[in-house]
Amino acid sequence: MSTEYNKPLPVPQKWSREFWKGTKDHKFLLKKCKDCGNIDHPPYYYCTECMSLEHEWVEASGKGTIYTYSTTYMGAPPVFTKEQPFTLAMIDLEEGPRMLSRIVDALPEEMKIGADVEVVFEDVTEDTTLVMFRLVK
Ligand SMILES: [Zn+2]
Predict the structure, then answer these.
(1) CATH class belonging to 61-137
(2) Residue range(s) in the chain whose domain bears CATH number 2.40.50.840
(3) Phi (first) and psi of residue 33, to 5 degrees
(4) What distance in angstroms lies between residue 48's CA and the mean position of ligand 1's atoms?
(5) What is the pLDDT at residue 1?
(6) Ranges under pLDDT 50 in the chain
(7) What residues does 129 pair with on adjacent strands?
(8) 24 — phi, psi (to 5°)?
(9) Distance 34 CA to ligand 1 centre (A)
(10) Is the previous residue joined to 42 through a cis bond, with omega within 30 degrees of 0?
(11) pLDDT at 3
(12) How far is the CA of 106 from the centre of ligand 1 (A)?
């Protein structure tokens, strides 16, 4: 953990605060609608399927597959330049939602559509833990 973290940080909202509390405990929580069972990620204020405001938080398996990805070799914003090349991927979570995240601990040539990934938690500040993924090798 670094106290000099200089990259953008999430700003928890009323409807996503529970998600960020979960990541601090290294739990990957998803917002599930109590009326229709839909799981949204990122969490919205209401259910994107039925507009319900009733929800519960369920712990995700942390497993998914890469739907698609993009590796940045150059041109990233200055705070990310030293980390190039890095890969962002659209990940189909086991529970249904498709989310954007970063793939860590892998070389660009290891990336593959359909590859299995699992969640990892990165404690970046005292208050913030980010969710990222790594390849299941
Ligand atoms: Zn719903």
Answers:
(1) mainly beta
(2) 61-137
(3) -70, 130
(4) 7
(5) 52
(6) 2
(7) 123
(8) -60, -30
(9) 7
(10) yes
(11) 57
(12) 36
- Residue 63 tokens, joined: 């497993």
Helix (H, G, I), strand (E, B), or coil: what is residue 118?
A: strand
| Separation of CA 123 and ligand 1 centre (Å) | 32
10 Å CB burial of residue 63 (0-12, 13-18, 19+) is: middle
Q: What residue ranges in the chain does DSSP mark as E strands?
A: 29-33, 39-40, 55-59, 63-72, 86-93, 98-104, 116-123, 129-135
pLDDT (0 to 100) of residue 2: 46
**What is the b/e burial string over 73-93, where b = at least 16 CB atoms within 10 angstroms of the residue's CB?**
eeeeeeeeeeeeebbebebbb
Tell me the per-residue pLDDT of 38-66, one tens digit each, with 9 for 90 and over.
999 999 999 999 999 999 999 999 999 99
Whether pTM > 0.90 for this model: the answer is: yes
- pLDDT attached to residue 93: 98
CA distances to 4, 87, 116, 136 from 62, in Å = 28, 18, 11, 11
Residue 62 identity: G
User: Structure tokens of 56?
Assistant: 């519960």
